[in-house]
Write a structure and sequence with these properties.
The protein is mostly helical. The chain has one domain: NCX, central ion-binding region (A middle domain of Talin 1, Up-down Bundle), CATH 1.20.1420.30. It is 81% helix and 1% strand. The radius of gyration is 18 Å and the shape is globular. It is a multi-pass membrane protein.
């Protein structure tokens, strides 16, 4: 029993620690090179909390475990929306900026619908992956242009980076210690990348072993254990933002993570390891992902906030979803 769980848990720890080192080192390097904090937040820090999902899905795809690869992406979005938003709203009601809600909420739903549509009718090809990545680059570019005009235009891409910077001061560009040389920061980033890659390998092999040992499909493991484990950075950053009464940042962090998951992680997974999304995900879990995305927007639109009772509803729905798919 212990031998089955050890690679899985060890992989998760290496992913989270490695991701922290990678982003911290990369941010310090970028700051030393004169990159603006806005660009750092939108790119390096924004991608930082998605690094565990990225490495896990790509390595699972390369290993032929499409259930884990795409289960991780879809399961992470479902967990972000129901589990993490639910917990964050229970800690503190989540206020939502109407402008960000219209712009980023629509982007999240559109990306979700396109991903589900492609998965339902054809394999995820390299062309589809390239289109997703280009769409993410365009989204980040537009976000950068809008963020540059003033603080009132903050959107999900900015909030995703801001939430991570709030949760970990080591990632805040203005707090880079002068004693940390460019070489040290670069070495830290490389060491973090190595840990992330090793952690992803352990996590995928552990998930496959767990599925085989307990007779559970790899898809279910990917949708639940792997997805929740790799989404822990989003959990921490959203709860911290809620405790600091920055509800708009918590909401933007989750919406931004969902966009990054589909366009970035889904794009790179399809580009590097093209293949079909498992039928059970395409015919059921993708529909759940679409439904909960619309539900989140409905909650946010009604009173420009996600209240505690709505957070409770989201948590209850997640518990019901896991109960439904778990054998």
């Amino acid at each position: 029993m212990f031998e089955v769980w050890l690679p899985l848990l060890g992989g998760l720890v290496l992913l989270l620690v490695g991701g922290e080192l990678l982003v911290g080192g990369a941010v310090n390097v970028a700051t030393r090179l004169g990159v603006s904090p806005l660009v750092i937040g939108l790119t390096l820090v924004g991608f930082g909390t998605s690094m565990p999902e990225l490495v896990t899905s790509v390595q699972a795809g390369l290993a032929g475990s499409s259930g884990i690869a795409y289960g991780n992406i879809v399961g992470s979005n479902i967990a972000n929306t129901l589990l993490i938003m639910g917990v964050a709203a229970l800690v503190m009601p989540i206020a939502v900026e109407s402008r960000a809600l219209r712009r980023d909420g629509v982007t999240m739903v559109a990306a979700t619908l396109v991903f589900a549509g492609i998965a339902a009718f054809m394999p995820m090809s390299r062309l589809a992956g390239l289109v997703f990545i280009l769409a993410l680059c365009a989204y980040i570019y537009i976000a950068f242009r809008q963020e540059s005009t003033g603080p009132s235009d903050h959107g999900a891409a900015f909030d995703k980076g801001a939430a991570r910077q709030e949760a970990g001061s080591a990632l805040t560009p203005t707090e880079v210690r002068p004693a940390r040389s460019l070489g040290f920061s670069l070495a830290t980033a490389i060491a973090g990348l190595a840990l992330v890659i090793i952690g992803g390998t352990f996590l995928v092999s552990g998930a496959v072993a767990l599925a085989r040992g307990f007779g559970i499909s790899e898809t279910v493991i990917g949708l639940t254990i792997v997805a929740v484990g790799t989404s822990m950075p989003e959990m921490v950053t959203s709860v911290v933002a809620g405790l600091k009464k920055q509800g708009d940042v918590a909401f933007g962090n989750i919406v931004g993570s969902n966009i990054y998951n589909i366009l970035g992680i889904g794009g790179f997974t399809a580009l590097i390891a093209p293949g079909a999304v498992p039928r059970e995900i395409a015919t059921f879990d993708n529909l759940v992902m679409i439904a909960v995305a619309f539900l989140l927007l409905a909650f946010a639109f009604t009173s420009r906030r996600v209240s505690r009772w709505e957070g409770g509803v989201l948590l209850a729905l997640y518990a019901g979803y896991v109960f439904l798919i778990w054998p």
